[in-house]
Amino acid sequence: MSERTFVIIKPDAVRRGLVGAILSRYETKGLAIVALEQRVIGPELADAHYAEHIEQPWYPSLRDFITAGPLVALILEGDSAIEVVRLVNGATDGRKAAPGSVRGDFSLSNQANVVHASDSPGSAAREIALWFPAFA
Questions:
Q1: Where do runs of H (alpha helix) occur along the chain?
Q2: What's the DSSP call for residue 99?
Q3: Percentage of residues of the chain with pLDDT beyond 90
Q4: pLDDT tens for residues 18-53?
Q5: pTM of the complete model
Q6: What is the mean pLDDT of the chain?
Q7: Which residue, 50, 57, 62, 64, has fewest beta-carbon neighbours within 10 Å?
Q8: 74 close to 35: Cβ distance less than 8 angstroms
Q9: Any residues with CB less than 8 A from the CB of 39 and at least 6 apart, and which?
Q10: Is residue 133 within 8 Å of 48, Cβ to Cβ?
Q11: Per-residue confidence (pLDDT) for residue 93, from 0 to 100
């Protein structure tokens, strides 16, 4: 079943020059890039994107991190895209992610973990509408 999902290549990955390597993993897996944009976001978009986390004590550092520099936002499409992207990305905590996954190969952190991906069809729809309204 073809579906779309939303991904952020986070500022730490952009700063380290990993965008091409990460995109290659998705494309090699067979996913198509539907939309892609490099941008710097402000606190308002960060708050809207991470709305469910705003009240958490660790959220201010996450907001500072995600707004600290350029990131790449994209929509990927393919068979079971949400599940496939999450498997390609690996566990959220890069220290626990399997070797061969994006986080397993490129991250040693739970926050600076190089990528974000939608975790469900509902979150994919919400995030795509927020970041790429023309594709909603």
A1: 11-15, 19-29, 43-49, 59-66, 81-89, 102-106, 121-131
A2: T
A3: 97
A4: 999 999 999 999 999 999 999 999 999 999 999 999
A5: 0.96
A6: 97
A7: 57
A8: yes
A9: 70, 71, 73
A10: no
A11: 95
Q: Rounded to whole angstroms, how far apart are CA atoms 53 and 116? A: 14
Give the sign of the dihedral formed by CA 36, CA 42, CA 43, CA 44: negative
User: Number of helices and strands (H, E) in the chain?
Assistant: 7, 4
CATH topology of domain 2-40+71-135: Alpha-Beta Plaits (3.30.70)
Alpha carbons 12 and 66: distance in angstroms, whole number: 9
pLDDT tens for 72-90 read: 999 999 999 999 999 999 9
Q: What is the arrangement of strands in the sheet containing 32-39, beginning at the earlier edge strand?
A: 32-39, 71-79, 2-9, 115-117
What span, in angstroms and rounded, lies between the C-alpha atoms of 29 and 85?
A: 9
Distance CA 62, CA 104 (A): 20
Residues belonging to the active site: 116
Angle between helices 81-89 and 19-29 (to 10 degrees): 130
Nearest Cα to 72, choosing from 98, 52, 108, 102? 102
Query: How far is 93 from 84, CA to CA, in rounded Å?
Result: 18
